[in-house]
Amino acid sequence: MTEINEVPSPFCGAGTDDLTIQVDGTSLKVIKNGCAINTPAFEQPLADTQPRVNGTITDLATAVAKAAAILQSAKQPLLGGCATDVNGMRALLALADKTGAVVDHMSFNNARSNILTLQDSGWMTTTLAEVKNRCDVLLVIGTDLESFTPRFFERYLWTDAAMFLENPVQRKIIYLGQAPSGNASSSPTGQDAQVFECTQDQLPEAVSVLRALIKGRPILAESAGGIPITDLEVIASQLKAAVYGVVTWCVTDLRFDHAELTVQTVCEIVKDINDQGSRCSGLPLVGKEGEQTANQVCGWTTGYPARVSFAKGFPEYDPFLFDSQTMINAGEVDAQVWVQAFNVNAKPLSVTVPTIVLGRSGMAFEQEPDVFIPVGTPGIDHAGHAFRMDNVVAIRLKKLRDAGLPSTAEVLTAIERAV
Description:
2 domains, 5-stranded parallel β-sheet, 21 strands, Rossmann fold, alpha/beta, 9-stranded mixed β-sheet, 419 residues, Dimethylsulfoxide Reductase, domain 2
């Protein structure tokens, strides 16, 4: 039995790197600094370690050969999931290039609202280090921050010291839309967060009026999105008075049509405050299950985020046309590879076409795929790199145990060579 300290996590997206993990053979137990996301992810029991072809256990070479045969006969393969580390995503793109496949990350439909905003009008965003050292007012829009990143406040706000703040525990926390699920946003001194609740469908109106107030536009209504104008004026005045305000949101929680327009309004609020002489930055909450990693690697490899087609012999990007589910529903896909090295519950969209799954040990299926190859989880079964939510730091993941599982990169490279 061994204890490993300062373990980084690939699961929470927030760059948590201070876990202590007890390793007993292939069993892991988080004994320090775990959370509702990291603890169950690390402690997931090891189950199957052998590949299967049509439900029958086989060796890796046979499974790779079968996968290669499926892709060789396919006219339009799809490489989905994309939940892996940097090297895994590099190998996935190499296989896509060789087979003319479409590449689509499983979270792209959520991330699309952010990407469309960034492409259309740009944004001003910050890093987790800047939040920790400078932020004195945090506005959380439409998101339960404690649920998304349980240790966010502990790691980045309620700290003992900050480089540019005399008293970090006096930071102001404001929620617009969804109330927090716990009390992590309450400061150690007992100062509660300010909460201005509204429903999802009311949020676009509330955010739009908040921007108008920040720009000094007259508002004749008494409320917007179910929130009194006087309350929105309080939020506007606190953001404008902040030394370094931060506005954060999670697109996964913005479950309404054309959420990209609300994200764009949020980003314009940040620009408006900076235009008026104060400092403000945005902080999009993303990065779980390899989302940032996939987009980063795809970006520097192809110039586009992780929804691209190699069918024409070069990368072609379309945030709508190359949607996995749309293509499957339209019968445009005749084979798929699903890569998910982190989450046993994130399974392929469909197995109506020949399907190859490179998944975390323990993944179970209602309908067995043609090929299932259990792969190691980055940060547990092998070392690797994964990008955290602010997109500026590649976390160096450790190997904690030896379960005899190949990495995603090793398997995808073997398939590519066999095609």
